[in-house]
Amino acid sequence: MSNPNTGAVFPLAKQLGLVAPLLALTILVSAPVIAADEGAPKWKVWSYNPSNRALRGNVPAGTSPGVATFPFPATPDVALLVTDHGSYKGSLLGDLTGKTVSATVSAAGGPFTYYGQGTPQNPCGPPANVRLFFQTKSSGSFAETDYWWSNPVSLPLASIPSATPMSASLTGANWSDYNGHFGNDPQFAAAFADAVQNVTSIGLSFGGGCFFENGVGAPNGGSFILWKFTAN
Fold first, then answer.
1. What is the pTM of this model?
2. Integer Cα distance of 7 and 137 in angstroms
3. Does pLDDT of 19 surpass 70?
4. CA distance linking residue 75 with residue 169, whole number of Å
């Protein structure tokens, strides 16, 4: 496992089941999403199933307001909001070399909790948050460099009641892989560059504490809105 403050590692129960679903799904979409007709049917929420060993996908509730919106469940299960829709080829998907990924987001309700909160297995301080994520096509077997998260760029869900932007240029220093290795590390720089040249899914991930995608919920109710997502 990587340094828990830099990597996209997961609490064991969820880590065991996450890799296979992601590889099998090659999830996510691309393209500057701006209007409602570019939205929810092309974006999916991926949540952990009751066993916490696999992800299941659902179409977000709607596009009004924003590009995609969904309610958080009471349990900390929401892991991803992503798209891989073919209409985004060449804008959000494909070769994004030299571009900057940007999203405008907000969250209502709360408090927001994350999987493993308050446990010895997840002792780090960051609250439930959202960050940028992209994936490249897998060769068929798991590779840590197929998955990349913006690091340290993220937003605490409790602090974004109104539309708030975040962005990260696609340079290695701004992204870390499944095991927490940065894209500017000489050992991983070539793999990062290859991933950026062939983005097959893109969007946002939800986590907290030591982890980037361990799942978030809102016991008293809460919702999330993606207002805009671009790669320019």
1. 0.84
2. 20
3. no
4. 32
